[in-house]
Structures are given as structure tokens and as C-alpha cells.
Amino acid sequence: MTHPAPFSLRRFATGEAGAVTVEFVILFPLLIMLLMMAFELGMVNMRHMMLSRATDLAVRDVRIGVGAVPDFETFRSEICEKAMIIPNCKNVIRIEMNSLKRDKWTTVNGAARCVNKIEEIKPETEFVHGEENELMLIRVCALFDPVFPTSGLGRRLPTDAEGRYGVVVTSGFVNEPDA
């Protein structure tokens, strides 16, 4: 008498039916994860590039000495107008402008302070206009929600208490003397 169980197991182990399904089950999630991470990285880079471009364009007139140095609200409005892809821009960016001493070369202390929505928003942190021939440092920080916060790169980004990551842009210029 033959035993059907071992024969069935041997036939199942040597059979090739369903081999593509196993490969699909293993590789499809990896491919989707790779595509999600690529999209997340593209969004991070695009947001950083647009914030950097907007900051440089807003600082440009100040660098070349055209007109007066804008106040905080005007400067923030210019950045938000030129950085077109930042949602709710005026509420998620924070701007710091400080003068640096060239003879002592002291840098701005600590990391850039981004807007923390848990606390009350203080629109103006430090916005010192500086004097003639003074070296100025501008830091702009914006907070964004990851596109895919629970997978891949979105899970690995350093975030605040609300799960948003910060993009920081730094720019510098020297105040031109009045002619």
C-alpha cells in the first residue's frame, strides 16, 4: 500500500507552479518601498531647493543695497511669495537675521529654531538689520509633514513632536555702505 501524504509532499516540493507568485510577494513590497522613498526624497529636495531659491531672491535686493532693508513681515512675505510649494508658508517658516562680528567671528548659537505649533508662535525671533559693512547671517527654517510618514525615508527623518521635519536654509551678506 502506498502512502499518499509523502507523495503529495514530494510533488508539492518539486513542483514549479506558483513560483512567480512567491517572487512577486517578495519583490513587490521592496519595489514599492523604493519608489515611496524616492518620491519622499524628491519632495525633501524640492522643498529645500525652493526655500533656498526664495531666500536668495528675497535677500538679493538687500545684498546689492537696493532700497531699504525690509522689515520682518515684508521679508517673510517675499520668501513665501517666491517659494511657491510651501503650504501655509507664513505659519510654518521662521526667520532669523543676526549680525556676525568679523574680528571675533562668533557664529549664531545653536541650531535654527523652527516654528513649534505646540507653543504660541512668536513671529519674530531675532531680526537685527545691522550697520554698514557688517556681516549678516540669515537662517530660514520651514517645517513640513512627510508624504509617507510611516514608511522608508519618512520614518527615518528627524522630526519634531508633531512628526514634521525641518528644512533649514542659511544665507549671508554684507551690508553695503550708503553712497
From TrEMBL:
* Alphabetical UniProt keywords: Membrane, Transmembrane, Transmembrane helix
**Does Membrane show up as a keyword for this record?**
yes
Question: Does the keyword section mention Transmembrane?
Answer: yes
Xref: Pfam families: TadE
Q: Which residues form the TadE-like domain?
A: 18-60
Q: Which residues cross the membrane?
A: 20-43
Protein's recorded name: Pilus assembly protein TadE
Name the species this protein comes from: Phaeovulum veldkampii DSM 11550
Q: What is the lineage of its organism?
A: Bacteria, Pseudomonadati, Pseudomonadota, Alphaproteobacteria, Rhodobacterales
